[in-house]
Amino acid sequence: MRAVSRDAATTMRAVSQDAAGAPDVLRLVETRRPVPGRGEILVRVHAAGVNPADWKTRQRGVFADGSRPPFTLGFDVAGVVEAIGDGVTLFQTGDEVFGMPRFPHPAGAYAEYVTAPARHFAPRPHGLTHVQAGALPLASLTAWQALVDTANVQPGQRVLIQAAAGGVGHLAVQIAKARGAYVIGTASAAKHGLLRSLGADETIDYRTQDVAETLRDVDIDVVLDPLGGLDRARSLRTLRPGGTLVSILPLDDTFPIEEAELAGVRAVFMLVEPDHAGLREIASLVENGRLRVIVDEVFPLEEAARAHTLGETGRTTGKIVLTVTP
Question: Which terminal residue of the chain has fewer beta carbons within 10 Å of its beta carbon, N or C?
Answer without folding.
Answer: C
